[in-house]
Amino acid sequence: MKKVILSVLSLSLIFLISCGDDKSKKDSTEKKEVKEEVVEVDPMKNKGIGPVTSIELADEIDQGLAKTGEEVYVKMCSACHKPNKRFVGPAPAGIMERRSPEWIMNMILNPEEMVQKDPIAKALLAEYLSPMANQNLTEEEARAVLEYFRTLK
Amino acid sequence: MTMKILKFITVILSASFLLASCGNNGNSNKQGALTGNAAEKVYVAPGEHDEFYAFVSGGFSGQLAVYGLPSGRLFKVIPVFSQDAEKAYGYNEETKPMLNTSHGFIPWDDSHHPDISQTNGELDGRWVFINGNNTPRIAKIDLTTFETTEIIEVPNSAGNHSSSFVTENTEYVVAGTRFSVPVPQVDMPIKEYKGKFKGALSFISVDPEDGGMDIKFQVLMPGFNYDLSHPGRGKSHGWFFFTTYNTEEANTLLEVNASQNDKDYIAAINWKKIEEYVNNGGGKKMPANYAHNVYSDETHSATSTMKKEVLVVDPSEVPGAIYLLPTPKSPHGCDVDPSGEYIIGSGKLAAELTAHSFTKMLDAIENKKFDGDAYGIPVLSYEAVNAGSVKQAGLGPLHTEFDGKGNAYTTFFISSEVVKWKLGTWEVIDRKPTYYSVGHLMIPGGNSRKPYGKYVLAMNKITKDRYLPTGPEVTQSAQLYDITGEKMELLLDFPTIGEPHYAAGIPADIVAKNSKKFYKLDENKHPYAIKSPAEAKVVRTGNEVHVYMAMIRSHFTPDNIEGVKVGDKVFFHVTNHEQDYDVPHGVAMIGANTSELLIMPGQTETFVWEPKQVGVWPFYCTDFCSALHQEMQGYVRVSPKSSNIKLSWSLDDE
User: Can you give the residue range of the structural domain that contains A27?
Assistant: First the structure.
């Protein structure tokens, strides 16, 4: 008798599930994954999430490009980032030793998704509270900023 | 025990039946909807977009509201002729010049007839024009930013009502006067009106590139009231039609005295002919004084220029350019069908509608079928131009729009209904009540060569019992009807801002794709803009203090200012350094005798604060911008007038 009850129960559960739409099902599974996530990533290997998948850095710093990057940085980033001092956001000095170049560019170009999904970006948001603003830089501008970061010690 | 288990099974089984049937519930809803699926037709699911934009004027609110159709959801109220503290329009230093006139700064007007720009007789979705009735003005709203970018005052005009309708390539936006007045204005007895007052019809050219407006010429017509107008299109392109009333030229108790004549006129103006006359040096330049206010998206600021001259044309100078078509009973609406053949006059005191034929009008002109003249302007024979009339259609016809499928829809104010009738046969097909006292109606593109005949929006003057009461003043409303079938179907009532006087509708896909997301900081040419927080500074010139301030989530640079004194006039020039969609910031200062600022990304705006008391006074961000919005704040130290404290500013002590 108990077996029968059990099977009826599971049937009604199936009905329950089939009545919800696909989206909510997905959402619930996603939430589950989020909870189980453990932040154990090698920051130098994590390329982040966004348009930039692979960057080759030349050995020599391109000073012209770095200069352009500095101009972009002053205009678009300096409201929240001071080169050598923690401010609204972290200081970029030394970032080349802390993060992969792809991650840096993706954080500039795709901050909304990064702070939601990338484990390092999520941890940074938890620490700094102010979410990284998307300043709508072009990929070229972000690349120039990256080059400028290489000059910061 | 067994009983208990059985009961349990029954409960679970019935529960699962209920659950399993949820899919069918949807179906049965649809079946039930066969008799009334109005809700489905106006339901736009969360996150989905509407099919049409409706730009609904606010009448005495002076503004223009943007709704979605079919949902009736309100997206934005665009300030046009009235100050709007929410958006700082008419309060900040940048937009105050928009409301300048020859009478000085005017914080309000009565906005009536929006019309969307056209190319080849079809809606192109570049601009909306709208008239200010009271202090005659025409405004232009840019549909990339949904902001008012230009206002031109109309001289020699009063009660700017037969406005603001565009010709089929937006060559002109036309503004006709309701009141006739002395031209030029003069101190004279009111009783001597007859024969001395003039009615100015203004043809305002529109630059095809930037939309810049300029009064090309004014036709000084006899002293009638010019009520509404519409352009010819297709075959009648080049003509413009105006209804007139008070052809009696009464100056008092018009209710009685302007309703004496059995017929007034529709004035047909061949503007192409007058344009040619003017281009060849015709017309007279007369002294005038009117404001031309232009807002720039680059400087984020408006300038106001007083113009001192206007070109006027006397009808007698251009014979063959103007004719009068007799039309019964003080005609109000003047609407031209998509083919340009029929000109519909709605005698507001009549029970029927009058349709004139453009072809017959040309023939009557050719064969001189005249019936006298008015101040030298030929009056065409009614029989010679009349194409037919819609008999016993209702009481108090006002306005007509078209569905592009051979049908016309007319509102009847007194009998509170929309009546569908057929062009050419003049037979009534359907009628539906409105709630109540409908004025204009709108079909998207319904006054163009290409109507999108899916919905008609009726705009009502009175709602009485239709909504929850809100004291003596209750909302006015719009009502949406499905017009895809033979019979109209009422789908939706929705409340509106102010008086929904008239509207212009357009398929959303024509406009939405051009909508700007933010202003590029790089392109900001505001004289007080700063491009990086490093440029932030505070500058004193005498008792004027200029604060060059930046804002980004979620702080101001600078946020501590000292050295301001009682009696100073402090200008806060605030630049939003965000460069992303939908990240405006606001700013407000305690005790400032003005509104907040609401600043879009990349934009600079300015407010003025005149501190009256010594102390340390705060300012803060008014638009919830981020999780740290409540942290977005700052202080200004105000010292006595005699103080020697040096001007200084900082953020985080730097």
Answer: 2-36
